[in-house]
Specification:
Layout lengths: L1 E2 L1 E4 L15 H14 L3 E5 L5 H13 L4 E7 L2 H10 L6 E8 L2 H8 L3 H18 L3 E6 L6 H13 L4 E6 L6 H14 L7 E6 L6 H10 L4 E4 L13 H10 L1 H4 L1 E2 L7 H12 L20 H9 L27 H10 L6 H15 L7 H14 L1
Parallel strand pairs: 1-10, 2-3, 2-9, 3-4, 4-5, 5-6, 6-7, 7-8, 8-9
Helix pairs in contact: 1-2, 1-11, 2-3, 3-5, 5-6, 7-8, 8-9, 14-15
This protein binds 3-methyl-2-oxobutanoic acid and zinc ion (ZN).
Amino acid sequence: MKKIQFFDTTLRDGEQTPGVNFNTEEKVQIAKQLEAYGIDVIEAGFPISSPGDFEAVRAIAGAVSHMTVAGLARCRKEDIDRAHEALKDAADPQIHVFLATSDIHMKYKLKMTPEEVLASIKEHVAYARSKFEKVQFSPEDATRTNKDFLVKAVQTAIDAGATIINIPDTVGYTNPTEYGALFRHLRENIANFADVTFSSHCHDDLGMATANALAAIENGATRVEGTMNGIGERAGNTAIEEVAIALHIRKDFYQAESSIVFNQTKRTSDLVSRLSGVSIPRNKAVIGANAYAHESGIHQDGVLKNPDTYEIITPSLVGVDSNSLPLGKLSGKHAFATRVAELGYDLAADEMNDAFKRFKVLADKKKQVTVDDLHALIAGQTQEK
Ligand code: KIV
Ligand code: ZN
């Protein structure tokens, strides 16, 4: 089994979600919960970006004990110094230095030549290494970077002292086949690939962030960056809870394990949703309200006989109380009778048949039949007698 580490950037990339702004107290609350959830590294913020971010990184560095605490920095000495200052109380600090390497970013955003970019990586990674034991370098927009140049940039960073290389799919452009091949290419062309931690960092613009992270793991990445509930710029980042549970449920395939404490999943997700104000879609994998709900009669019958028929994740594994069998027009007699019995009614067979027929008529007119509807339906039937 290989060990996969989780790097959570809910408080940095996640806070880049339009409309999201955590205060320091909220950030510390989230950081402590992420620690309880088993996250290995937390990116607490971008210290030079604002006094508030600096303060939050400092507060988190002093508040957590097991997690590595990372701060983001551009390839600028003042960014690195500010991150160093913010992280000085951290038990295990890490710096995350980044610089774009794609043609489009170098030409239009940075206005730097490829040679200047390589020189800046060399200088600033070395400077970061003079202050930190753990230095991560990210070639921003790596998936749209010329592959030969990406190898040069990554090798330059490693030679200058980077201990972690993160490969960002900054604009969510890649797909699992291509992203997996990119990690293979790096594995085959970077001299000391095995001495360095390689990490994935994906965005979800094409809906492939989770699949891309898993493809990276299949091809040599041992760390995954993401956010809780997948919040982040535009369509968001890789949802950590999805990758973590996929590795666990498909351990047979990935042959990997992590330190994630699965029964803290729902609690962590709920906290981030509440403090970010970003609600979770009902059909969201792992943590959506419908993820453990079975509506059709065939599914309900199967689940009542054995949950494994339609549930690959046991709700309690992720801290969800139980599955649910909402009653709607597609529901069958098994689920209906079970719910009626749970409500305390002991109906004879003909009464049950009659009640089920009335239920079907009602269910055709409503999205969902509630407990109150059931009481009314059975009370009406008893009164008619
Ligand atoms: O998406 C991205 O490229 C980033 C970098 C700062 C790593 O978030
Ligand atoms: Zn990002």
